[in-house]
Amino acid sequence: MIVITGATGTVGTPLVRGLLERGVPTRAISRTTARPPASPEPGIQWVTADLDDISTLVAAYADADVVFLVTPVHPRMARFARNVIEAVLRGGNRTRIVLLVAAGLDQNVQGVRFLNAHAEGLAALKASELPYTVLAPNGFFQNLLTMAGAIRAGTLAAPVGEAAISFVDARDVADVATHVLTTDGHDHATYTLTGPRSLTHAEIAEQLGAVVGSDVRYSALSPEQARDQLTAAGLDPWRVDGLIELYGFYATGHAAAVSDDIERLLGRAPRSLAEFASDHRQAFSASTHSG
Ligand SMILES: NC(=O)c1ccc[n+]([C@@H]2O[C@H](COP(=O)([O-])OP(=O)(O)OC[C@H]3O[C@@H](n4cnc5c(N)ncnc54)[C@H](OP(=O)(O)O)[C@@H]3O)[C@@H](O)[C@H]2O)c1
Fold it and tell me: How far does residue 133's CA lie from ligand 1's centre (Å)?
């Protein structure tokens, strides 16, 4: 049995689809019973559990052969990872854990709370002595969808200066996860997952504009301007501070390296920004949202 944490999320959704296509017995975890399967999903068992409540996790994880562990961005995200590891250990099996972290943990991440929490979760996993594999993706192209309104209006704004970042498509992260969860030979491996190229935000804006056929310009924000915008958008202060820290990490060039791990694992190149933008043309295109 493969147990998928974060099964309704950006990575989890295409991952569950990938496992469904392979016909692998899968348990998908969500906090809500309200998630109605759009169509019958033979082989997928949806289970309600809360990463903040270990009493709900033991039954969900204890009989797993392999676990995909995503910790949602949250002040207790490191605790969430430890809770899942504890639930697995209570099952007493040599369950393999495929842990999703973020690229950059090989650098000093002390002041970057999201990365620091991932480093804590990874340390707990290593201490558990369970077999594990680490997936370390760079930022997702899908983050651009949260800025689609501003992009449609012609501006991509971020506090990253002129730094290049090797963003990756979350669907490729899901494809790698599908492969790693269903094949052997990945114990103690760390796979760094990036897109095919490192791009500045000015290049991203230009490519988005080319795909949708309109002018999109990059506006380099100061951290203070970004903080004001994120706060005005309704994000809580912990998340706003975390995003400013992460952007600062990006701005100093820490997320520029390109890895060939996706190509080595999947035998194909990672999706490009142009492919992502083309697949989401409607979201970024002003003409489809006018009126
Ligand atoms: N976005 C990026 O650019 C990026 C890049 C690299 C790494 N990452 C890492 O990716 C992870 C997030 O993955 P994602 O983007 O796929 O997730 P996501 O879209 O943010 O979705 C969060 C998932 O976590 C589940 N969840 C939230 N709180 C929960 C709880 N208390 N108990 C059980 N499940 C809970 C949600 O399920 P329900 O709502 O159905 O309960 C949902 O499936 C983070 O660790 C982040 O650091 C993100």
Answer: 18
Helix extents (H) in the chain: 12-22, 54-61, 77-91, 113-128, 148-152, 170-182, 201-212, 223-232, 237-251, 261-266, 273-279, 281-284
Range of the domain at 79: 2-137
pLDDT computed for residue 39 by the predictor: 58
Residue 38 near residue 31 (C-beta atoms within 8 A): no
Q: Does residue 290 have a pLDDT over 60?
A: no
pTM equals 0.97
Q: Is the CB of 290 under 6 A from ligand 1?
A: no
Is the C-beta atom of 195 inside 6 A of ligand 1? no
The total of structural domains in the chain comes to 2
Q: Is 133 in the pocket of ligand 1 (CB under 6 A)?
A: no
Q: Which residue has the tokens 């491996």?
A: 189
> Which residue has the CA at smallest separation from atom 18 of ligand 1?
9
Structure tokens at 261: 């791990």
- Regarding the beta carbon of 242 and ligand 1, being less than 6 Å apart is answered no
Nearest to 167 by CA among 2, 10, 1: 10
CB 171 within 8 A of CB 271: yes
Question: From the CA of 135, how far away is ligand 1's center (Å)?
Answer: 14
Task: Note whether 156 and 117 are same-domain residues.
Answer: no
Please give the pLDDT value at position 35.
61
Q: pLDDT (tens digit, 9 = 90+) per residue, 31-86?
A: 986 665 555 677 899 999 999 999 999 999 989 999 999 999 999 999 999 999 99
Domain match, 68 and 145 both: no
130/213 same-domain check: no
